[in-house]
Amino acid sequence: FEAKKLKNRYCFFDKGLAEQLHQRVDIETELKHAIENKELYLTYQPQICSAHGSVKGVEVLLRWHNRKLGLIAPDKFIPIAEETGLIADIGEFVIQQALYDYAQNLKYTEISLSINVSAYQLMYTPLFDILKHHVEHYQISPNRVILEVTESIFIEDKGAVQGLFEKLMSYGFLISLDDFGTGYSSLSQMRDYPIHELKIDRSFITHIHEKDQDAALLHQIVSIAKCHDIVTVAEGIEVTAQHEIVRTLGIDIEQGYLHAKPLEIDALKAYLAANTLTQKACC
Ligand code: C2E
Ligand code: MG
Ligand code: MG
Ligand code: MG
């Protein structure tokens, strides 16, 4: 009966869908060779201390420029890298290259280095060993390194995740909860996991200067984080009015186009050289 019912179903397969599928296959095929073809490179977006305006850290943001497909956004290729397991090698490339750049250019500053790590990397690759190996090799203090994980990690086994976080934290790495408020998180996670920092998702920031309710919600998030001694970061600060509110609410760090876009390492160096407050760590 089921089979018959299925047989009579129509399959809506329009041109848009076919194109999407093609694009996905193209991305997957090309992504397999992205590292060896040297198509991946890193950009760094400055993170600013809200109260003082000094540069507190940088977030590593991966870029992929493919010879056939052009520049592809990470929101497009990272999910495919995760599904195919390619994120294991890509993630290690990011870690190695970022720590190399850091050692070459930022070692004698107090700037922190935030690296995005996928749940896949945490659960299915020897992430701790990889990080430890590279920080030892480049002689970088692990407490300069912040690992940004998204809430998707909380669908994994709680005990296992807690164990992995604790191993990373006890060595000195710091853990940041990225895109906070968009996914599976609940406030109890601030209590149950050793989280150093909360990155409040851009969607909570966008309208704070236009909607009182949004500002009130942000205020509540910040109050709870502060109760748990967790550093707060506001993502996606684009205009001065947002910066003013964020600073007034006592959010520690800001990141967004108002301050700087993601920069390649040479542009980052120039940016830092122009910012005299750089060497002061704040949070
Ligand atoms: P994310 O970690 O939440 O990174 C913040 C994203 O917001 C970045 O997008 C950044 O360029 C963008 N952004 C920063 N300031 C502003 C602003 O003021 N306005 C707007 N509209 N956007 C802003 P990007 O670089 O396209 O990266 C997208 C996502 O891809 C990242 O979100 C992260 O989840 C993922 N990703 C990037 N690099 C890596 C990586 O090396 N490994 C992994 N696993 N994921 C990565
Ligand atoms: Mg991030
Ligand atoms: Mg984010
Ligand atoms: Mg994101």
Characteristics:
single chain, about 280 residues, 11 helices, 9 strands, binds ligand C2E, binds magnesium ion
What does this structure look like?
This protein is of the alpha/beta class and about 280 residues long. It contains eleven helices and nine strands. It has helices at about 1-5, 15-30, 75-85, 85-105, 120-125, 125-140, 160-170, 190, 210-225, 240-250, 265-275; strands at about 40-50, 55-65, 70, 110-115, 145-150, 175-180, 195-200, 230-235, 255. The chain has an eight-stranded mixed barrel with strand order 1-2-4-5-6-7-8-9, surrounded by four helices. Strand 2 (about 55-65) and strand 3 form a beta hairpin. Helix 4 (about 85-105) runs parallel beside helix 6. About 35% of the residues are buried. The protein binds ligand C2E and magnesium ion (MG) (3 copies). It comes from Pseudoalteromonas spongiae. This is EAL domain-containing protein.
